[in-house]
Amino acid sequence: MSARPTIAKARRIVVKAGSSSLTTSEGTIDADRIDALVDVLAARRAAGTEVVFVSSGAIAAGLGPLGLSRRPRDLATQQAAASVGQGRLVARYTSSFARYGLTVGQVLLTADDMMRRSHHRNAQRAIHQLLALGIVPIVNENDTVATDEIRFGDNDRLAALVAHLTRADAVVLLSDVDALYTGDPRRPGARRIDEVHGPEDLAGIQLGGSGRVGTGGMVTKVEAARIAGVPVVLTNAAQAASALAGEPVGTYFHPQGTRRSTRHLWLAHATTGQGRVVLDAGAVEAVVRRGKSLLPAGVTGVEGEFAAGDPVDLCDPAGAVVARGLVNYDAGEIPDLMGRSTRWLARELGPEYEREIIHRDDLVILEGGGPHE
Predict the structure, then answer these.
(1) Quick one: the chain helix, strand, coil %, rounded to 5?
(2) How far apart are CA 166 and CA 54, in angstroms?
(3) pLDDT at 179 over 70
(4) Is residue 143 a known part of a binding site?
(5) Is 176 annotated as a binding residue?
(6) Which residue numbers delimit the PUA domain (predicted)?
(7) Cα–Cα distance measured from residue 72 to residue 78, given in angstroms and rounded to the nearest whole number
(8) Do residues 311 and 273 lie in contact, with contact meaning Cβ atoms separated by under 8 Å?
(9) pTM for this structure?
(10) What angle do CA 188, 189, 194 make, to 5 degrees?
(11) How far is 2 from 190, CA to CA, in rounded Å?
């Protein structure tokens, strides 16, 4: 393995720590682990790098105080645990970073904050201002109010989206394993993967994870690396200092493809389709292959209830999701528009109808239900 100057020289870096890196097996906060990790982050901060810290652990930190032996399955108890644990977690970070004269700022996000454009911009401004003021932002999903229907699901994905939100130069994912392996590292024959250049390096790999007190496994970490758009290192907390120094530890994910705009990343990875619009074959060709806007003439059906401005999934004639976009009409308006040209609609219904169902600037192409790079 070679050194990684892109990590060592990063001007702004997102570091994510999973629950297992921060808590004991009983679900209580491990003060020594947190102090050791803060030592590393503070040192990188003192060297001139802006650090955005994405921290799991709120639910896990609440297990002990609530007398729970394991992560609850029901949403209400998860929310209660997060409510208790988040305060304890941030209090510990506040105390630990204070040893270096650093102040922390808590930023709690939900997927809904990324879905709503105004919330997205507010979160971006807040984090940028914290950094400008010399504060260390500590980001976590707001598990107290998140719902099963609208949530990030894991902080690996959140870290990748925060990297786009903040225009970070690199991401370090700290897990309970030291690298990506071809199989379960606890079993014989599993081979460590030092670098990932693209999907071809992941062929035949069995992705899994221990998930002792967290929600993410290797699948979520690989997905996070794929969408981050910047270099990503996956390793464990014990090797955090080496990873941040650009030393050849863990698994290094090279950036895949060109870095998307924050808007398209938000649309692809932080929104959920509120309904479905079915396209004919010609419209699929125009939207997916030729980068065109979706016009009423190419729509054959509409499913669900949504309002103008909501994200909706676009489906091919077989029902497969091929794209997602921000729709310009309410669901109830579209049936009367289907199969019509915009010129006809403007003449018969008025000039306000001479517009696309979804403009190409508000579209992101998906493949197999996931983002197409």
Answers:
(1) 40, 20, 40
(2) 12
(3) yes
(4) yes
(5) yes
(6) 275-354
(7) 6
(8) yes
(9) 0.77
(10) 120
(11) 22
Q: How many CA atoms lie within 13 A of 174 on its CB side?
A: 29
Instruction: Give the domains, in start order, of the chain with CATH numbers.
Output: 5-265 (3.40.1160.10), 273-371 (2.30.130.10)
Rounded to whole angstroms, the Cα distance separating 223 from 217 reads: 10
The answer to whether the annotation marks 24 as part of a ligand binding site is: no
Q: Confirm or deny that 361 is annotated as ligand binding.
A: no
Beta bridge partners of 232: 171, 253
Confirm or deny that 221 is annotated as ligand binding: yes
- 9 assigned binding-site residue: no
**Cα 84 from chain centre:** 24
Q: Provide the token pair at 51.
A: 């650090």
Q: Annotated binding residue at 218?
A: yes
The verdict on whether residue 220 carries a ligand-binding annotation is yes
- Is the Cβ–Cβ distance between 274 and 312 less than 8 Å? yes
Helix (H, G, I), strand (E, B) or coil at 23: strand
For residue 16, give the H/E element and its range: strand 12-17
| CB-facing half-sphere around the CA of 215: CA atoms within 13 A | 19
215 is in an annotated binding site: yes
Strands in 12-17's sheet, in edge-to-edge order, are 104-109, 136-141, 50-55, 12-17, 170-175, 232-236, 251-253, 195-196
Q: For the segment 115-138, what is each residue's pLDDT rounded down to a tens digit?
A: 566 777 888 899 999 999 999 999
Exposed / middle / buried, residue 28 (Cβ in 10 Å: 0-12, 13-18, 19+) = middle
pLDDT tens profile 252-306:
999 876 566 666 777 777 677 899 999 999 999 999 999 999 999 999 999 999 9
339 annotated as belonging to a binding site for a ligand: no
Question: In this structure, which amino acid lies at residue 294?
Answer: L
